[in-house]
Amino acid sequence: MAATQSEIPTAPAAAPAANPLFPLVLQLADTSLILAHRLSEWCGHGPVLEQDLALANIALDLLGEARSYYQYAAELEGQGRTEDDLAYLRSAVEYRNPLLVEQPNGDFAHTIVRQFLFDNFHYHLLKELQSGPDARLAAIAEKSVKEAAYHLKWSSEWLIRLGDGTPESRQHLDKAIATLWRFAGELTTPTALETNLQELGLLPEYAALLPAMQAHAAHVLAEATVPLPAAPFAQQGGKSGRHSEHLGYLLAELQYLQRTYPGLTW
Amino acid sequence: MVTTSSPAPTEARIWQLLEEVSDPEVPVLSILDLGIVRAVAVDGEHITVTITPTYSGCPAMSAIATDIRLRLLAEGYRQVTIHNQISPAWTTDWMSQAGRAKLEAYGIAPPIDGTASGHVLNLFGQDTAVRCPLCKSAHTHLVSQFGSTACKALYQCDDCREPFDYFKCHA
Ligand SMILES: [Zn+2]
Predict the structure, then answer these.
(1) Coil, strand or helix: which one is B44?
(2) What's the pLDDT score for residue A3?
(3) In angstroms, how far is the first alpha carbon of chain A from the final one?
(4) Phi, psi angle pair for B56, to nearest 5°
């Protein structure tokens, strides 16, 4: 028992002059991993078989993408930590995913709205990252953007079906939008780290992604007959390690196997 | 000097052997049909096979790497390195014509080039008219963009009513 409890991290060991890409790659990895885990919770619980499969497929794509990032992050850090150490053996405050992706699944409409907000950002970000100056990051983005396009189409179609569907589906969608839209702002609000990387030219300016994201959202919402939601404020903190209580419960399940049987590999 | 029972490997021989390794998820295709083997290099007894994943999370990739090792081991080739290369990203353009014909005969509609999902506003399957692999009718509809594996979508034929898999264009 004592051995496992001693894993409470000491302050992340000072890693001076570490590659500035390391925290960014880790943030991208955490984001895809946490959302993949949330989506995997649907496995066996989807509303119909085809959509159960779709949710599992998207989870798998994101997990594969996360793995590519974690492997790269481990190399960038160069401190001997592996992809598994990074994915499984950090505490909640060390995760850098935005709050949106750790939000619970809720009902199907809730999952769709969360996915739509994420996909709309993810797809447009990867589109830019694939022509970025870092070859490895560009290669991962080039691979993942093709998958992200399918994800965005899927969540867009479902948002339209639910919005322009029955009064019942519309009620669920409206509730999900009211709950989740406030988490969208964090995705495109740069942290100090992101601003620094943007100045170095290693990360696209989020402001430059917004026109395409807004155009896509406007088109889909119009098809769904849903008025463009107002976003009075942006709920943020996840990218700086300030998470909702949901992440702790999620990690308890995600990390259970690795902490119980240390050294298992993917 | 140790002599081995098998002849020294040649690149041509290795390519031949790789033709006998099938995709575990679509066993009618060899990994060469699928277009995931990017290079073979032979240096003395040492063989390096470079493969590229189809989809990021494709669980078949580690099975394929194992199958390659086992096939080469069966010929006595023990020094094998499998190199995973993600760029340039795999595309269905690399699927062989023979592979496409095998897919359709097997009941899976082959990818239609130029229909990759780059246009995120082409919703509800408007962009892809897929031919039924059973009755060859063009009257089909998309059931789900995500099928039994990451590389396939689910369609149904409006004429013969057969539900079938479509190997998605990925370019
Ligand atoms: Zn038919």
Answers:
(1) coil
(2) 39
(3) 24
(4) -50, -45
Residues of A in contact with B150 (CB under 8 A): 57, 60-61, 147
Minimal Cα–Cα distance from B153 to chain A, Å? 10
The answer to whether the complex's ipTM is over 0.85 is no
Chain A residues with CB under 8 Å of B145 CB are 54, 150, 153-154
- Write down the pTM of the prediction: 0.87
Any bridge partners for residue A7, and if so which?
A: none
Instruction: Please name the helix (run of DSSP H) or strand (run of DSSP E) that holds residue B140, with its range, or none.
Output: strand B140-144
User: Cα separation of A249 and A8, whole Å?
Assistant: 16
For ligand 1, a single-atom ion, the residues with CB < 5 A are: B 132, 134-135, 137, 157, 159-160, 162
Q: What is the pLDDT of residues A86-127, one digit of tens each?
A: 999 999 999 999 999 999 999 999 999 999 999 999 999 999
Residue B118 binned pLDDT confidence (cut-offs 50, 70, 90): low
Domain count of the fold of chain B: 2
Residue ranges and CATH numbers for the domains of chain A are 18-260 (1.20.1260.10)
Residue A15 CA, ligand 1 centroid: distance in Å: 61
Gap between the Cα atoms of A248 and A252, Å rounded: 6
| Residue B63 structural domain | 11-84
What digits encode the pLDDT tens for the residues B126-140? 667 899 999 999 999
CATH number, residue B70: 3.30.300.130
Report, in this order, helix, strand and coil percent for chain A, each rounded to 5: 70, 0, 30
d(CA B166, CA B45): 41
Longest CA pairwise span in chain B (Å) = 67
How many residues belong to chain A?
A: 266
